[in-house]
Write a structure and sequence with these properties.
The chain is flat and about 45 Å long. By secondary structure, the chain is mainly alpha-helical. Helix content is about 55%, strand content about 0%.
């Protein structure tokens, strides 16, 4: 699904040729994701589905941040 979103964002909406995007994904991105992202997914407090509507994602994030374990979250600096 990440690849489909990347194709839409960079090839359909942007100006990156599909051939270039796929080459870079296969040569570099896929291995890095498998090495660094996938092994840690099970430790995440929240995993969101980026294909869902923005309002739904915002509600999911808000609910997670205001739920019973919200005090475990790292506070966001407001000066940014």
């Amino acid at each position: 699904m990440r690849l489909a979103r990347k194709i839409e964002r960079q090839c359909v909406d942007g100006s990156v040729p599909l051939k270039v995007l796929l080459y870079n994904y296969i040569q570099f991105r896929r291995a890095a994701e498998e090495r660094y992202v996938e092994p840690l997914r099970h430790r995440c407090d929240l995993v969101i589905d980026g294909t869902r509507p923005v309002a739904e994602l915002a509600e999911q994030i808000h609910s997670a941040c205001s739920g019973p374990h919200s005090s475990d979250l790292i506070p966001v600096r407001e000066d940014r």
